[in-house]
Amino acid sequence: MTHVPDPRPGSRLVRRRVRYYYLLIALVIVMFAAETTMHYTHYTWSRWIVTITALIAVSLAVGSGLRADDLGLSPRTWARGARWAAVIVLVVVVAIALALAIPPLRDLFLNDAYRELGWALYSAFVLIPLQTVIPEELLFRGVITGALLRRQSVAVTIAAQAVLFGLWHVVSSTGLSAGNDGIGDVVGSGTVGQVLGVVGAVLFTGASGAVFGWLRVTTGSLLPCLALHWAANAAGAVAAAFAWKLG
C-alpha cells in the first residue's frame, strides 16, 4: 500500500498546538471556578478546593510531559533557589516590621480577619501556605508558566501569567475595603470603595505576579516565588494582629 504524505506538513503540529491551548484555557477556567467556589461557600471541604485543583493540575501536567525543570522544581535549582528565598524572607519581614512601626502605615494592616494573634499565627504557618501560597505558585509559576515557556517567549509568558494572577484576585478582593479599616479609609466605603478596592488589588497582584514570574524565570526555581508570596501574606497576617494591639 502506497503511503500518501500529508498535503499540509505542518497541519499535525498546528492541531497539537491548538489542542494545547484549549487544554490551557480549560485549566484556567477550572482554576477560577475553584477560587470562586472557595470564596462563596462556607464548607470545610471547599476551603481546600484550590489546593486539590493545584495537585491535580500538577499531576496532569507531569503526565502530559512537563518536567521538574518546567515546573521550577528541579533539584539542581534547589540550592540557588534556597539562597534567594532566605534573602527574600528577611527583606520582606524587616520591611513589614518597619512599616508597622510607622502609625500611618500601620493602619493599612488593620485586617478584620486577623484581630487575634493566635489565629494570625495559625493562618501564617498552616492555612496561608497550604491553601494559598503553595497551590497558587504551583498553578501560576509552575504549570502555567512552564507550559507557556514551551510555546512562548519569556516576556509573553511573564506578562500572561501576571495578568491571570491579577484577575485571580477579583473575587477575593470584593470585600477588601470593608474588611480592612486602613484601606477602607483610603478608598472609601460603599460601591465606589469596593470597586476601587478590587481594581487596586488586581493591579497590585498583577504587578506582584510579574515579579514572581521574573523570579521564577531568573532563578529557574519555584522556591523564591514561594518565599516572597509566603513572606508577604504570612508576615502581613501577623502584622495585622500586632497592628490591632498597638492601635
UniProtKB/TrEMBL annotation:
Q: What are the residue boundaries of the CAAX prenyl protease 2/Lysostaphin resistance protein A-like domain, all occurrences included?
A: 121-234
Transmembrane ranges, per UniProt, are 20-39, 45-63, 84-105, 117-134, 154-171, 191-215, 222-244
Please give the Gene Ontology molecular function terms for this protein: metallopeptidase activity
Keywords tagged on the record = Hydrolase, Membrane, Metalloprotease, Protease, Transmembrane, Transmembrane helix
- Protease as a keyword? yes
Is Membrane among the key words of this record?
A: yes
Output the superkingdom of the source species: Bacteria
Q: Which InterPro entries match?
A: Rce1/LyrA-like_dom, UCP026622_CAAX_protease
Specify one Pfam family: Rce1-like
Report what the protein is called.
CPBP family intramembrane metalloprotease
